[in-house]
Write a structure and sequence with these properties.
The chain is α+β, with helices and mostly antiparallel strands. The chain has two domains: about 5-145, 2-Layer Sandwich (Ribosomal Protein S5, domain 2), CATH 3.30.230.10; about 155-270, GHMP kinase, C-terminal domain (Alpha-Beta Plaits). It is about 30% helix and about 30% strand. The strands form two sheets. Strands 1, 2, 3, 4, 5, 6 and 7 form a seven-stranded mixed beta sheet that branches. The chain starts with a strand and ends with a strand.
């Protein structure tokens, strides 16, 4: 059965690195939300596996076993054509490939296809939370996912077009044994309330990413100085950054302000939930 699937952008509102296991995997504590913006997939079952690409970020995406989509399909023992409309920049810290793979697995599960329980995590730390595709707290190496209620958070996503290798960012961490978020995450009444709490939290990957890509400094400075910004921070391992605003209109106004000065940057006003 053909399926149309949406794979939303994943935004790490916080990302605390709390340890490292003997096997090298990092322990994380992250509050994650998802945007009303993402990639689109159409799945058509068939006898052979194929990935067909279009969209503004199709260039450079592998269409073989290197692609998480291919690996997810293979792990689920499914074959067919995946038509991928790539709207999200890849290698950008917003879970593009992980969200694509998770969306494929979710669609197959909804059609009654049996998905091996350990498959999502084996594809990457972000795949389990992307399978939930709603605000959640992600802990451990990504296997502990707890849904969280958040107000709708108007935001502006900005990527300066630089690629930040995840391995280099983790290698640049000064400490791998940092404090987690508070055990209880409060109930937030509005974006202002949420942003005030988030300001007391961290993205521990932001300092090494800024060292690897100084452009992130400029993005964060421009977001922080934009009209109405409540909070600015980097998502994931970068280089996409975000700012939260009280309204979607304020996020669009910030996009206009920043876009006028940096027309080459990718930016989208979104709602996070």
């Amino acid at each position: 059965m053909t399926a149309e699937v949406f794979a939303p952008a994943k935004i790490n509102l916080t990302l605390h690195v709390t340890g490292q296991r003997a096997d090298g995997y990092h322990l994380l504590d992250s509050l994650v939300a998802f945007a009303d913006l993402g990639d689109h997939l159409r799945l058509e079952p068939g006898s052979e596996m194929a990935i067909d690409l279009r969209g503004p970020f199709a260039e450079g995406v592998p269409v073989d076993g290197r692609n998480l989509l291919w690996q997810a399909a293979q792990g689920a023992d499914w074959t067919g054509a995946v038509h991928l409309d790539k709207q999200l920049p890849h290698g950008a810290g917003i879970g593009g490939g992980s969200s694509d793979a998770a969306a494929l697995l979710t669609a197959l599960a909804e059609q009654g296809h049996k998905i091996p329980a350990d498959l999502p995590l084996s594809l990457g730390a972000d795949v389990p939370v992307c399978g939930l595709a709603r605000a959640a707290r992600m802990r451990g190496i990504g296997e502990q996912v707890t849904p969280i209620e958040l107000p709708v958070l108007p935001a502006l996503l900005v990527n300066p077009g630089v690629h930040v290798p995840t391995g280099a960012v983790f290698s640049g961490l000064q400490s791998r044994d940092n404090a987690p978020m508070p055990e209880a995450i409060p109930e937030f009444s509005d974006p202002q309330d949420c942003a005030a709490w988030l300001a007391e939290q961290r993205n521990d990957l932001e300092p090494p990413a800024r060292g690897a890509a100084p452009e992130i400094d400029r993005v964060l400075a421009d977001l922080g100085a934009s009209s109405g910004a409540l909070l600015s921070r980097m998502s994931g391992s970068g280089a996409t950054c975000f700012a939260l605003y009280p309204t979607k209109k304020a996020a669009h106004m910030a996009a206009y302000e920043i876009g006028a000065e940096h027309p080459e940057w990718w930016m989208r006003a979104v709602n996070l939930t």
